[in-house]
Automatic annotation (TrEMBL):
<dbReference type="InterPro" id="IPR008719">
    <property type="entry name" value="N2O_reductase_NosL"/>
</dbReference>
<protein>
    <submittedName>
        <fullName>Uncharacterized protein</fullName>
    </submittedName>
</protein>
<dbReference type="Pfam" id="PF05573">
    <property type="entry name" value="NosL"/>
</dbReference>
Amino acid sequence: MSRGRGRPAAGVLAAGWLMLAAWLGGCGPAAGPVPIHYGSDRCAECHMLIVHRRFAAQLLERDGRREKFDDLGCLLQWVAAHGGWGGVQAAWVKDYRTRRWLPVQQAAYVYDPGVASPMGYDLLAFRSRAAAAAVMDRQREPGLVLSFAGLLHRRWQPHLPRPMRTGSG
């Protein structure tokens, strides 16, 4: 049986649409975090060099621009100063222990004034609430374990100047 001349088979059309969708999807920004060049990238908020891997954060704006931060507090301040979370497509923080990227909404956080972060916000990110609580159990100074929502319900201010006591990056 003939399918008729000049009309491509349905499979060919479907494959063409899939290829076009994949090509168009590849034109936008990658959905995940991008590498930070420690020692040369600068924080979008405070403009300091990003050097400490445990405290790094980044976000992807809805318009495709990316911003990198040396401290979670800088990310929070930048978002507040630039219209809030509505303009943010995604954001990530580094797990304090593993140094792996975590989606900002899924991480658990510790406010620990005994561990100075680069800009003095003293916020640490962890993969789970249990991991965060385990760190707090070993601290001498009182702190807080928070969810992402808990972070947003507070106003964060840096506690500088003082020397960092975090070890290497």
